[in-house]
């Protein structure tokens, strides 16, 4: 039963990031509301409202058809234009910044909700038109339905104004960086706050029994409590060898167990781990480092040549690295005071190397960018860390950056300026 609920949660977590999720829900709601209004019209709701507020009701069938037809045509044009702007936003973000940004932009609920309002209004007006006869008089017209159709159209116009404002903000790189940073910081803080004080020792897994996952995909979510129950039931310890958020290959070793497990037990463990074909920052903070690094690298490419954006990206990387230094390199989970589960984690030195190797390659020829990167590293080595090895990794990256810079820069004044930063 627990596995079933985990699957439902993972399914909902996946589909809500699709651009068609909320528009589909709203469209279905618009259809149901149109059917509800047809039923209420048969009960005489328009006749009652006509007696109370006659000035709000349409008194002629031809007029009602003309008004709703105009609203319908306008809303269809509005939705096509809005959808085209979303596609333009995605295309520009992919070409100017990074294709990795697309899942986050597509999952923007504000765009989905606005498109959903359009679709719901369009479907409502279409089915309302079916219930209008040109020869109908005011007491037989679905007046309330027509009035609601007009109000929905006005709502869509207001939503379109907000949509223009929102999409103009979404394409700005500062807002994109801030969104990525906020999501990853929230995820990192959750991991740091939920960490329990456990011994940092785990048995050597070299000779443990090894198992493959059988299919490929990005590790999205892990039902830790269910796997802990399996460990206790089978009297074993389990090591998940691939970090969450990374791609698991079908024939690679995925699980290690202290004791040999039956095929059914291995399938139970794997069934509590969900896989997807994409990545989201909300599930994997490592993706934020990749995205921000790619934005900086793309900005420093000859085709873009935007060092200002690269500097902004390094500022956000600095804060993320400082927060990551408060998290340990090992994820060891206990239950009933027994160490039962270890999940592989991207180690800090691996993370810094992956980020810095890309930045070094594309930024070592620019003295301003070199100064900014060294400022970041110098700041980080003075920050608190849960493990002393973090500072050693940073010092190693500083020395590597200096060596590569001396090979790339020829101006003595630039080299002197960089040396002053290190002394400071």
From TrEMBL:
Keywords: Membrane, Transmembrane, Transmembrane helix. The chain crosses the membrane at residues 20-40, 64-90, 111-132, 144-164. InterPro entries: DUF2254_membrane. It holds the Pfam family DUF2254. This is Uncharacterized membrane protein. It comes from Aequorivita viscosa.
